């Protein structure tokens, strides 16, 4: 029991020491340094570039870079001063990503689905939002904390029950942590990045109303989806409804911003 108490106290101290706030004011747990995350981001970026074919189409690359530059220009410091690397991949995947350390990837499949520059700006802004809100750090930290909590729980349960009972309860606890803690945090990350991306695209002169249109296009591309409570993403309709509300709030910013000029090739 003494070992358990010491481990519990240590976990509590680590948790309190690593609490921060996201750009929207939400409390976060971050146990890893920015340098560690940037290194992981660079490694992942290099790995993806080795596996995927990089587009050499100058018009497409200029188009994506133009939109990205517009968004970077309105980011808060120090993100607006950071060097961001952008790569277009010749893949029909409807996908894009941004990684810690300023690494952005956009797939041709997504460019095809995003019918306007505004819609592509919504996706790139959303992915940049994940980086600025340090969601990778938070997710890794949450998973680490959840694993530590299960280990501590296992120590306590093992002292009170026989091995069969302890194994059953720990299995149920594992499912509970996944559904009640890790997955909801993933959905929070997606919704928060939608909000941040909306801010950035509006400030950069891209029509925020196009974000909901993009997700209508995305919903047409998808097949059957799991129930929302089992998914790391909000359901398409939940997301569209939230984006429509956010776009109304972002319209004053958009109307005051110079109109973006990155025509789709």
TrEMBL record:
Residues 1-17 form the signal peptide. Keywords: Hydrolase, Metal-binding, Metalloprotease, Protease, Signal, Zinc. Residues 59-245 form the Peptidase M48 domain. Its cofactor is Zn(2+). GO terms for cellular component: membrane. The keyword Methyltransferase does not apply. This is Peptidase. It comes from Pseudidiomarina aquimaris.
């Amino acid at each position: 029991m003494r070992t358990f108490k010491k481990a519990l106290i240590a976990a509590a101290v680590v948790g309190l020491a690593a609490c921060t706030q996201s750009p929207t004011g939400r409390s976060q747990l971050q146990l890893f340094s920015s340098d560690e995350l940037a290194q992981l981001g660079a490694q992942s970026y290099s790995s993806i570039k080795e596996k995927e074919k990089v587009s050499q189409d100058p018009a497409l690359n200029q188009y994506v870079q133009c939109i990205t530059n517009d968004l970077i220009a309105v980011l808060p410091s120090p993100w607006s001063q950071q060097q961001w690397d952008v790569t277009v991949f010749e893949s029909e995947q409807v996908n894009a990503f941004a990684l810690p350390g300023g690494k952005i990837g956009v797939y041709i499949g997504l460019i095809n689905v995003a019918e306007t520059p505004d819609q592509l700006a919504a996706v790139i802004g959303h992915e940049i939002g994940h980086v600025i809100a340090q969601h990778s750090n938070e997710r890794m930290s949450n998973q680490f904390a959840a694993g530590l909590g299960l280990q501590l729980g296992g120590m306590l349960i093992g002292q009170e029950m026989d091995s069969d009972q302890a194994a059953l309860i720990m299995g149920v606890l594992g499912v509970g942590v996944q559904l009640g803690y890790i997955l909801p945090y993933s959905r929070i990350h997606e919704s928060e990045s939608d909000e941040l991306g909306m801010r950035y695209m509006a400030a950069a002169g891209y029509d925020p109303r196009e974000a909901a249109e993009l997700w209508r296009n995305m919903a047409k591309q998808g097949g059957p989806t799991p129930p929302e409570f089992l998914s790391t993403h909000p359901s398409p309709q939940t997301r569209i409804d939230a984006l429509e509300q956010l776009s109304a709030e972002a319209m004053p910013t958009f109307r005051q911003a110079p109109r973006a000029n990155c025509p789709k090739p």
